[in-house]
Design brief:
This is SDR family oxidoreductase. The protein is of the alpha/beta class and about 290 residues long. It has 13 helices and 9 strands. The strands form 2 sheets. The chain has a 7-stranded parallel sheet, with helices on both faces. Helix 1 links the parallel strand 1 and strand 2. Helix 1 crosses helix 8, helix 3 packs across helix 4 and helix 10 runs antiparallel to helix 11.
Amino acid sequence: MIIVTGASGQLGRMTVQKLLERMPAEQIGVSVRDPQKALELQGKGVRVRQGDFNDADSLTYAFEGATQVLIVSADGFGDALVQSHRTAIEAAKKAGASRIVYTSHMGSSPSSHFAPMKDHAATEEALQTSGVPFISLRNGFYTASALMFLGDAISTGVLAVPEDGPVSWTAHLDLAEAAAIALSEQCFDGLTPGLTATEAIDFTGIAAIASELSGRPIQRVVVSDDTYRDTLMLHGVPEAHANMLLGVFRASREGEFAHIDPTLTKLLNRSPLSVRDVLKTSIAAAN
């Protein structure tokens, strides 16, 4: 049985849906903190069990009978997050899983300017020392994050963010399909190449695409790091989280997310969704 964690979240749920296109529902189980949020999957025949990365006993129950476990990286950053991933890895090992698949990031590095990349690197180290065969899916930066940073720029006409650099923004849907393929075909081993879309684009480019698609002019304004952090905190974002978000810009300025790789295109046997594709869908849904 393939167990997918975080199946009530965007990537986890999409991955389960893609798995259902490839195998019978009785071969799939999910581990979720709140089973009520996975009733739709249960209705399709997927095994739903409560599991929490901070509760090893719950994971022992949720992972029972697992042949493979997909650990979808949890929200947050820092030592507590890495420890929760270690707990999930140990639980998968205890359950007898023959392979652990983890949703990492193409920018994974212990020296990254973006804190979550250090956490991915630490989790990959835990996988390497676990003694269990693993696949670490080095996903491109989620395009959904670009939309988050874009915010209300279409309505205000201003996108005010710090200096940045090109990022290989990649859609959740494509990465979910990649995860489903990796789980069902076991086509990778260890650290994968970067699973990215076919272009790297900065926020000036994103503003231009959004302006074109919406028919509304958007001015891309460069603000200082300090101004951006202060603005976030003024809107109630905790300082630690504001500094973490600022790290995206610092890292992209250094080219940490600019690499593009053909692996995802080959795996999907088609072109991945572009920033333009995702923006077009988002703008259409908002109108």
